[in-house]
Structures are given as structure tokens and as C-alpha cells.
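Section 5.1 Outputs to date
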Amino acid sequence: HPRLRTKETRLSKFNQTEIKAMLGSYTKVLFVRDPFHRLIATFLQGMGISSSFSSFIQEVLDSGVHNGSVAWEPLVSLCRPCLIQYDYVVMFGFLGQELGHLLRRAGLPGGSLLPELTDSQVQWTYRWLSEQMFSELSAQQKKQLSHFYRWDLAAFPFSSSFLSD
């Protein structure tokens, strides 16, 4: 879209007519990931200042929904799936299947551009990490996290998420 050549690239900087024109000119893809897995990845990447996972989670909870980092902000707040009609929603864990389909839909060769994705190994690893790290949290932290991500859990099918319990 021509307006994206300006310095302002956040949608909130444009009026409704411009937003509608921009969004209508793109194929919109939303990549979603279990919120608890996002927290684990953020912690492991050292993006929090805490030394333990439990302390990191408390830091996240204390920051609140709108004052925290993009790394752990709920997806519903970041991506506005109720306002933006995404053409595709791709769940982390199904990337190998979905990315090939998206490339073919875009007229590109589906398999040749993709790295080898081992979704089942990633899912198993995150299941194990989730069990370990979830056990470090207090009952209160677990309850607060479920509340913090309640809209993500309602909007997307994270049926095996530890936060869904």
C-alpha cells in the first residue's frame, strides 16, 4: 500500500478509511502460539530480568496487560482478531503443514522455500518444558495467568494449554 512508505507504520496512526484500504490490499496471516509457550520462550531468551521462572511470571503479572512487553502481551490485544479479518490463522505446532499451503496459495513453490520443520519434536519439548515450569508456579500465579490470557484462550483453540485448566 502506498501509505506504508511513510515513516508511520502502526495502523493506529492512520484513519479508518486508510486502515480499511491497507488491510484490504494484503493477505493477512496471524501466527498464534500457546501463551504459556510464549512465556517460556521469552524467559529462555533472557528477555526478563528475573532469575527464576516464577519471578519472571510475577514480573509479567505485575506489568499488566497494557504496560508489559510485546513478547508476553496477549495476542488478542496485539493483533485484534475481532477487528481485523485475517485470511489465515496459523497455529504454532502446525507450521510445517500450513506454511506449504500458504506458499502454494500465493503462487510460490510450497516445499522448496521452507526449512525442515519438526513440529512434533517442538510440541513434545514444549510439553515437557511446560510441565516443569508450570510446577514452579504458585496456585495464585496459575490462576492469575489464566485470567491474564483469558481472551487468548477463548479466541484460539489452545486445548492442551496448561493455562486452560
